[in-house]
Write a structure and sequence with these properties.
Blueprint lengths: L1 H8 L2 E4 L3 H10 L9 E7 L8 H14 L18 E5 L6 H9 L8 E4 L3 H20 L5 H16 L14 E6 L7 E3 L7 E3 H4 L6 E5 L5 H11 L8 E5 L3 H9 L2 H8 L2 E2 L19 E4 L14 E4 L2 H10 L5 H7 L1 H5 L1 H4 L9 H7 L5
Helix pairs in contact: 5-6, 5-15, 8-10, 8-11
Length: 367
């Protein structure tokens, strides 16, 4: 247990709670915590051109299948991740927003939790941004002011003396999956209708796509800028494209930067920020259609009745929207050239301490 606790606290952590345990805790005031084993995914090397973080999300089951640790077939199914903690190493410089993309997908592996090893710098950057956001919230009357104030002080104290725990030397794992980024040379997608059924882009290229959804908690502001770069100057696309930024703040910045106009001119349906199609909350895609989605899951009927849903990156999804099919690797690489040319600006994350509308208001608040 000491090994597991040490490993977890070393990392940025995302935990999925079991509702039964929460109910037990509410009724008794205590909650049993049996620590499961961990599965370590260790990345090494450098991300290849055209390969996105979402492709690494899909690379995890892809390599697990290659090692015989995961099977797609339901009968006699193997899943090394089920009920265990998914620990990810080898990507210490990820922004916290990027770590979310990896940790969000842990639920699709049926993992109990996910821990992503990060260095101090991205965590400090993220906390600094959130301190500004919380001060902005206080200034705008969000409650509870005292709770927000306590969180701000706790973050400021950690930033002043940042410490990260690390895994014990010789920690044991249920399995270790090593992924050399030099070997991931093309996008990897999840096929209908199972997030475990992953294939290389070259294995599914040419498939007709009727609808595309870019949204869900798997996305951040950079993904929508990337889609805008792919679709800029295009109109009358052959697919029905749904675009739903995850938050109102993302939508506000994208609108100010002109990306709403670019996406709207392409024919995209700009949906209310939030979960939208990912959870089937606001609408559904057409019955029987085939879609490319950036959402976390593609279980049967999740996005629409009798639909076939592929899961991939926003970059790939926008190219699918433009072409009306899943592109070849060469077509994909050509399509993302416009994104790569402006990568530093496209993947600029939403640091609230650097956005005047939030920073100036936050400056009026003293905690």
């Amino acid at each position: 247990m000491h090994v597991i606790f040490s490993a977890i606290n070393r990392y940025y952590l995302s935990v999925q709670c079991v509702s039964g345990l929460v109910a037990f805790a509410a009724a008794t005031g205590v909650m049993p915590l049996d620590m499961p084993e961990s599965v370590l995914v260790r990345f090494k090397g450098k991300l290849q051109d055209g390969v996105t973080l979402r492709d690494l999300v899909n690379a995890i089951p892809y390599y697990a299948i290659k090692q015989g640790l995961l099977t797609v077939a339901k009968q006699g199914k193997k899943n090394i991740f089920s009920g265990r903690i998914l620990e990810i190493e080898g990507l210490p410089d990820l922004k916290v927003e990027q770590a979310f993309e990896l940790s969000d997908a842990a639920a699709e592996r049926s993992a109990a939790a996910c821990a992503v090893q990060l260095d101090k710098a991205p965590i400090i950057e993220y906390m600094t941004s959130n301190i500004t956001l919380m001060k902005w919230m206080i200034a705008n009357g969000y409650e509870d002011k005292r709770t927000l104030g306590r969180r701000i002080k706790a973050m400021e104290a950690w930033i002043a003396k940042p410490e990260l725990l690390k895994a014990d030397a010789g920690a044991e794992y249920a399995a270790v999956i090593e992924i050399d980024l030099a070997d991931v040379k093309e996008p990897i997608v999840a096929c209908p209708n199972d997030p475990d059924d992953v294939k290389l882009l070259s294995e599914v290229s040419g498939t007709k796509i009727d609808e595309v959804f870019i949204g869900s908690c798997m996305t951040n502001i950079g993904h929508f800028r990337a889609a805008g770069k792919v679709l800029e100057g295009k109109s009358d696309i052959p697919t029905r494209l749904w675009v739903a930024p995850p938050t109102k703040m993302d939508a506000m910045i994208l609108n100010e930067e002109g990306y709403y106009a670019i996406l709207g001119k392409s024919g995209a349906r700009m949906e209310m920020p939030g979960c939208s199609l990912c959870m089937g909350n606001q609408a559904q895609i057409r019955k029987g259609s085939t879609a490319m989605s950036t959402s976390t899951r593609n279980f049967p009927n999740r996005l629409g009745i009798d639909t076939n849903v592929y899961l991939g990156s926003a970059e790939l999804a926008s190219i699918c929207a433009l072409m009306g099919k899943i592109p070849t690797v060469a077509e994909y690489m050509e399509g993302v050239k416009a994104v790569n040319a402006k990568a530093a600006d496209v993947y600029r994350y939403m640091n609230f301490d650097k956005i005047a509308e939030f920073r100036d208001v936050a400056a009026t608040v003293t905690v």
